[in-house]
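Example 9 (inverse folding). The structure is encoded as follows.
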């Protein structure tokens, strides 16, 4: 009897390359698709391949994080692909962040769903692990369906109306499939999430002991996220209040599961996080640190110019003082109404989330102080590895990584795909848009928008929000999205779903710091880059080569 290998620890869902059964050779030499589904371990590996398409953003666009195409960050390499987002040179012929490969993940899911129906492992019924096999098999179809729904969402938030194959297509069929309207895609995703939620567990602990798999919680989360996007101005131009109510109810359903909790520490890179609903587990390496550490910490391991993500002054200005007052670096220096704010020490006593996201001048890092002032240890021209904005990235950085020759230390990164704080801000935003009252509750919506945002702020160590108007509360919610989820792949999409590109995507600022002989410092706001924006950029262009293959993908998205 063939031994059935059960993975008891981590489901490693990141592969260096994806594969179909045609080049699938991890099954003791089994070559045919039929043979692959004869054994449980090879069947499970096929599902793991479907997981391998889970997206992340530890440098998605040729090393640049997607935030480098927002007002939150700059990419130092002036010729980097991400700059096409900022100078307006992307097009159907020069598409960026092309996620058409997600259709490979969708096809893999569709093929798996067909084949798993006929998989028969009853000949192993006397195996000691047979009951566990049966239990896991009961989850497999719903995992594949939920992953497929997520991939449809990722495509729809890029392209709007998309082709949505839910069966295995021939080449001819794939090249003739019609587009599905955005709202119909969302309705399909919601239905799939509802079905998956009924059949997936809260956790795999005590069942399969695997980590990184989609759960009931992620089904609720994806439903909530999809409905939020459907309710947002980009896809809800008439501001249908019922769309916002649906989004709020979906978020509240996840809240009422009472399974997830906020954590007042960094959630990245922690397998035991009670806030993370789903993460992607990467292979162990420290490339992210190599390109994003201040140059001196790479010990000669990185060549200049830096290909790193550098936070902007625009983003730093979004972080309030610890007492809840705005702080802005203006042409004539720092300004804040907080009587405790010290413009000579502007990064002290700020929202604690600033220090988690950004390495500022004076911050402690790896046992020494960051010096980005003119002449400081970490100051240099951009071409020599210096920061173009006066700031370095901290979010997702693992300081334990080390590049000392002969003593290299590599680390494993977890990319958090969804965490509980997102649910709370989704609820806060949806409730204020649905009811216009931050304190509104009723028998269905039992929590207020004010409660939800303040849960997030209290967890961060920030004072309660006291809005003066509906617009004031809306502004506070949007700022909370920005600071809570800095560099977690939200700002790029929020700008688009809120349709605020004209107000945010034109000027990118940094800071110039000079240190006087007496040790005091002066801070000057500097314009680093003027960018281009057009409203057509709210959606991606459909790659022209895909329209050549399938004319039914026309018409091209508006403006492209």
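The amino acid assigned to each position is listed next.
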């Amino acid at each position: 009897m063939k031994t059935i290998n059960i993975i008891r620890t981590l489901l490693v869902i990141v592969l260096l390359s994806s594969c179909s059964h045609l080049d699938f050779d991890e099954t003791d030499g089994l070559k045919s698709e039929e043979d692959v589904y004869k054994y449980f371990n090879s069947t499970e590996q096929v599902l793991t391949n479907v997981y391998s398409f889970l997206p992340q953003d530890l440098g998605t666009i040729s090393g640049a994080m997607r935030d480098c195409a927002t007002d939150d960050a700059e990419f130092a390499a002036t010729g980097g692909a991400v700059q096409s987002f900022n100078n307006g040179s992307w097009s159907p012929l020069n598409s960026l962040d092309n996620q058409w490969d997600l259709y490979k993940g969708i096809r893999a899911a569709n093929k798996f769903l067909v084949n798993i129906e006929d998989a028969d492992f009853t000949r192993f019924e006397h195996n000691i692990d047979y009951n566990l096999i049966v239990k896991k098999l009961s989850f497999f179809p719903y995992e594949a369906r939920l992953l497929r729904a997520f991939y449809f969402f990722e495509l729809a938030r890029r392209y709007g109306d998309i082709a949505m194959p839910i069966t295995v297509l021939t080449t001819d069929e794939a090249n003739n499939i019609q587009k599905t309207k955005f709202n119909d895609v969302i309705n399909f995703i919601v239905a799939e999430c509802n079905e998956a939620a009924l059949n997936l567990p809260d956790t795999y602990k005590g069942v399969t002991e695997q980590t990184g798999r989609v759960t009931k919680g992620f089904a609720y989360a994806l439903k909530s996220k999809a409905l939020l996007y459907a309710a947002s101005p980009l896809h809800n131009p008439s501001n249908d209040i019922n769309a916002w109510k649906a989004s709020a109810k979906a978020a509240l359903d996840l809240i009422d599961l009472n399974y997830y909790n906020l954590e007042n520490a960094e959630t990245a890179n922690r397998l035991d996080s009670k806030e993370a609903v789903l993460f992607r587990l990467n292979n162990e390496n420290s490339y992210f640190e190599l390109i994003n550490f201040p140059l001196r910490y790479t010990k000669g391991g990185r060549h200049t110019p830096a290909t790193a993500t550098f936070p902007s002054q625009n983003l730093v200005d979004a972080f309030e003082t610890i007492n809840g007052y705005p702080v802005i670096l203006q042409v004539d220096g720092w300004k804040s109404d907080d009587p405790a704010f010290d413009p000579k020490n502007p990064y002290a006593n700020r929202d604690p989330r600033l220090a988690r996201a950004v390495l500022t001048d004076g911050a402690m890092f790896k046992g020494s102080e960051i010096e980005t002032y003119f002449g400081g240890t970490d100051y240099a021209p951009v071409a020599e590895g210096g920061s173009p904005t006066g700031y370095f990235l901290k979010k997702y950085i693992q300081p334990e990584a080390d590049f000392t020759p002969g003593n290299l230390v590599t680390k494993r990164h977890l990319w958090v795909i969804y965490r509980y704080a997102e649910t709370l801000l989704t609820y806060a935003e949806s409730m204020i848009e649905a009811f216009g009252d931050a304190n509104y509750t009723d028998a269905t919506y039992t929590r207020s928008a004010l409660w939800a945002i303040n849960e997030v702020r209290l967890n961060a160590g920030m004072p309660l929000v006291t809005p003066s108007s509906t617009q004031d509360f809306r502004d506070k919610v949007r700022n909370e999205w920005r600071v809570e989820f800095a560099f977690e792949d939200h700002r790029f999409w929020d700008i688009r779903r809120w349709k605020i590109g004209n107000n945010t995507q034109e000027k990118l600022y940094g800071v110039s710091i000079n240190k006087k002989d007496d040790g005091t410092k002066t801070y000057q706001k500097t314009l680093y880059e003027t960018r281009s924006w057009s409203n057509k950029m709210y959606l991606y262009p459909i790659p022209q080569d895909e329209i050549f293959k399938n004319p039914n993908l026309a018409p091209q998205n508006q403006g492209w």
